[in-house]
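Predict fold of Flagellar protein FlaC; 159 aa.
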Amino acid sequence: MALDFLSSLFKKKPKEEATPEAVEPVFEEELEERVENREENEQLTQVLERVNEIENDIPRIKISIDTLKKQIQELRDDIDRLDKTIKDVMMLYEVISQEINPFKEQMGQENPLTSEIQDLRKELEDLKLEIAQLKNDIKVLAGYGLDLDSIIYEVLAEV
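Predicted 3D structure, encoded as tokens:
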């Protein structure tokens, strides 16, 4: 075996052997191209699989987004209701605190709402007094036997 090996090294190679060597590089290049093509095909297949997965996930994501939008809108509505309730409570607190507050006179000068409330109270008291006086006047007139209906119609006609 060793002798065959050595003799093969020192002998001139026939032309037939030269052609297979030329074929071998072509064969190697072809193998390399096949390997590259196979790798590209595998990568393409992986990409297509991933695209299919994403396409399948899109409807679920859309449903989730719609659900989240609905929940956000509900939260906005709740916040609006809470805001309105808080404003109402704050107004009530102001009114009550003005009634109980020992520094009411000082606060009245600072808060325009308080002064309006006090003005309205004064007007209400004045109206109550006028109504009481009108009741007394009507009782007196009824005692004299006057026709109250005609008097009321005349007053209303003047107004």
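The chain has five helices and no strands.
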